[in-house]
Structures are given as structure tokens and as C-alpha cells.
Write a structure and sequence with these properties.
single chain; 5-stranded parallel beta sheet; 13 helices
């Protein structure tokens, strides 16, 4: 059977190594850290959003780049297969809003320990604190790798080295360099699922405030790139949270981007005006700021009144119909202008990577070098939030491991 090396001990590498070993190949998993799953450990804020039980159509809608490339990988090892695997390893899961799946314990460490035990049971040889420096090819096929501890020969190689986000976990773009050295095209990596910086300063005053059940519309140039209900967060530099992160992956980051927040998406403009009028009647002797305490979080009120051009100290009984309409408009269409993005090192995932045109989607094998396989974030595929990115890593890793052949 083929002597196989898997480089990278993240979700893609672990599944690739296990699948190859279960087929009878001799597998060595090389990890530069002292343990497996460093990035997996911090996913989902440490809770590990393993996957999403959405149907195929919804899953592909959440993959903005190269979704068709993933048909075979997701069909052969989808969310059902992943859930069955982790539960068979003693990690029960739970399902939350939006189809998100987490370990029932809310501990990513439970998943990592279970997969580590699985690798041992499959007979995978694991080597830690070892960095791969280069890849050897002879006569158009993989021959081995060179590490900081010497050269190792192999017949098959899976590169599951991740992207360039969260470099402290070991994702430093090594796989891109290896791919380029072997003749592959690498789409320049950019941040995906990344917080946004804003031209306006007022988000800083709201730092730490989370808004739930709001609608965020993102205009990329004049085009609506994103329009969803959900949750967002104000920060000291701008905005973040699930809605913002997903929007960042759908806008063209080189274009002017405008965000429009609907703070009351459940109310029509007419219903909202009636609600404001009712609140103002109840607080007729209060200031405009105090007249909106039932409508908004306290820290949001000055922002909305400023956007409407209404003095927050103006008595409610002196607010004109036109000013009330302006308040309603601000509540339904509060604007922010994006001035930039946090650095790629802070991105949840990386956009870009090895071109899918040079990888066989049915096997994850390179079209240029025999015996070379790619899996996970090193490939030019990425998804929105909700467990889809981890599923892509697990699926492409499993398919790569299953596709390794003899000879």
C-alpha cells in the first residue's frame, strides 16, 4: 500500500489521515505544533461549530466561491456522515438555530481528543513539532518531503496546511509556497469572514453592544451584495458579528461598501411611526432621548437621534411630524461607510488558495503532479458562517484520504 504523508493536523488533515489509514495505507501525519487541532480549538468561540445540517441547495448558497468544485466532496462525506463519525467516537452533538451543529458539551477539545483517539485507532503515525520545508517530485509524481528533521520518502502526499488566518495556530501559508513550487497557480489570499472598519466614529462609543434580530444590507458599489436578518456587534474599530462577517465575504473589498442597518425589520415604516407616536405620547413630558427608552438600547438612542438631526434633549411634545419621520427613517436605514477591513491574520478563514482548475474535484488530486492531494483551506474555496467552512475541511480531507491509490 502507498506510503502516505499528510501535512497539517487540522480538521482536513485529520480526516485525510484517518481515511487513508482505514484503506490500509501507511500514514504519517506531520504537524508543526505540539498537538493537533490548534485552529479547531478556537472555532465557534471554543464551542466548535462542527457543521450545518442545511440541505445541499442551502449549503451551496453559503459557499460564494467555487461551490461546484465541492459537489463530490460534500456528497461523499456530508454533515450526516460527520455527525455519525463524531458521535461514534463518543461525542454527542446538538443542533442550534440556523442548522448549526455543536458538540453537546460546547467544548471543541472533546472533538479534538476524539479525533486524536480515532487516528491512533486507525494506525496513523503522528509526528509533532516538525515543520515541512519543501516537497520532492520525481518524474512528475510525489517522491517525499524535506522537514527540519530530515527527508522522508512517500508515494502520496496530502497538503492540508490551512490558509493564512490565525497564524498563531500554525496557518502561515506554507502550503501556498509548496503548491507554487510544484507549478500550481495560487489565487492571492485575502481575508474572508473579517470584521469591517468604518469611516464613522460612533461605533466606538457602542463598543461591545450586540444587536439581535436586525437586518443588514451591504452595498458593494451600487450592487446589493448581502441582505440578511441576524446579529451584529459594534467594536472599537467598527463592526463585527455574524452578519458583518458574512457580508465581508460577499462584497468586493476593492469597491466602496456601504452598510445599511434596519433596527426594526419587523415593522413597516407606517407601523414604526405609530409605535414612535405611541411611545412619545407615553413620555410626553420627557426629552427625545428618554422618550425612546422602550424602543432601543440606551447607547443606540443618541446615534439614531443624531442621524435624524433631532436634538436628544428636545422635549418629546415639541418633536415635529417631520422630525418623527426622520427618526423612523434612521431606525430603518442607519448607514455606515466601510473604510477597510481587519488584517487577514484576524480573518476566520482565507479567501483564495490553490486554483480549483488544477485539482480533480472527484479525488482532490493535483492535475499536475501524481500522488499530490489538497484538502481544506489551502484550496480556493470558502463559505459563510454557520459551520460550512469546517464541513468543507472535513469533506475535502476525507475525499483526499479515500482517493489515495497504490502504484
Amino acid at each position: 500500500m502507498a506510503k502516505t504523508i499528510v501535512v497539517g493536523g487540522g480538521p482536513a488533515g485529520m480526516l485525510a489521515a484517518a481515511a487513508a489509514a482505514q484503506k490500509g495505507h501507511g500514514v504519517t501525519l506531520v504537524e508543526q505544533n505540539e498537538k493537533l487541532g490548534r485552529k479547531l480549538y478556537i472555532t465557534g468561540k471554543g464551542r466548535c461549530n462542527l457543521t450545518n445540517i442545511a440541505g445541499a441547495e442551502e449549503a451551496f448558497r453559503n459557499i460564494p466561491r467555487n461551490p461546484k468544485f465541492l459537489y463530490s466532496a460534500l456528497a461523499s462525506f456530508g454533515s450526516g456522515e460527520l455527525i455519525a463519525l463524531v458521535e461514534s467516537l463518543g461525542v454527542p452533538v446538538k443542533r442550534e438555530r440556523g442548522g448549526r451543529v455543536f458538540p453537546a458539551s460546547d467544548k471543541s477539545s472533546d472533538v479534538i481528543f476524539a479525533l486524536t483517539r480515532h487516528l491512533k485507532a486507525c494506525g496513523v503515525h503522528m509526528v509533532f513539532n516538525t515543520a515541512v520545508h519543501s516537497v520532492d517530485v520525481e518524474n512528475g509524481r510525489i517522491a517525499g518531503v524535506r522537514t527540519d528533521k530530515g527527508a522522508v520518502g512517500c508515494e502520496a502526499l496530502v497538503l492540508a496546511t490551512g490558509g493564512v488566518s490565525y497564524p498563531s495556530t500554525g496557518s502561515k501559508g506554507d502550503g501556498y509556497a509548496f503548491a507554487r513550487s510544484l507549478g500550481h497557480t495560487v489565487i492571492p489570499p485575502k481575508p474572508a469572514l473579517i470584521p469591517m472598519l468604518t469611516e464613522e466614529d460612533w461605533p466606538k462609543a457602542l463598543s461591545g453592544l450586540t444587536l439581535k434580530n436586525v437586518r443588514l444590507t451591504a452595498f458593494s458599489g451600487r450592487r446589493i451584495a448581502f441582505d440578511e436578518l441576524g446579529e451584529m456587534l459594534f467594536t472599537h474599530f467598527g463592526v463585527s458579528g455574524p452578519l458583518v462577517l458574512s457580508a465581508s465575504s460577499l462584497v468586493r473589498q476593492e469597491e466602496p461598501v456601504t452598510l445599511v442597518i434596519d433596527l426594526k425589520p419587523g415593522l413597516s415604516p407606517e407601523q414604526l411611526d405609530a409605535r414612535i407616536l405611541r411611545d412619545f405620547s407615553a413620555y410626553a413630558n420627557k426629552s427625545a432621548r428618554n422618550g425612546m427608552v422602550d424602543l432601543l438600547p440606551n447607547r443606540m438612542i443618541p446615534v439614531v437621534l443624531s442621524a435624524a438631526g433631532v436634538d436628544e434633549e428636545k422635549p418629546v411634545n415639541q418633536v415635529t411630524r417631520e422630525e418623527r419621520a426622520a427618526i423612523g427613517h434612521a431606525l430603518k436605514a442607519l448607514k455606515l461607510h466601510v473604510s477597510g477591513y481587519r488584517p487577514v491574520e484576524e480573518a476566520v478563514v482565507t479567501r483564495g488558495g490553490v486554483s480549483v482548475k488544477e485539482i480533480n474535484p472527484s479525488t482532490m488530486e493535483s492535475r499536475l503532479v501524481r500522488g499530490l492531494f489538497f484538502a481544506g483551506e489551502v484550496i480556493d474555496v470558502d463559505a459563510l458562517t454557520g459551520g460550512f467552512n469546517l464541513q468543507i475541511a472535513f469533506s475535502t480531507g476525507h475525499l483526499a484520504g479515500m482517493s489515495i491509490y497504490d502504484g
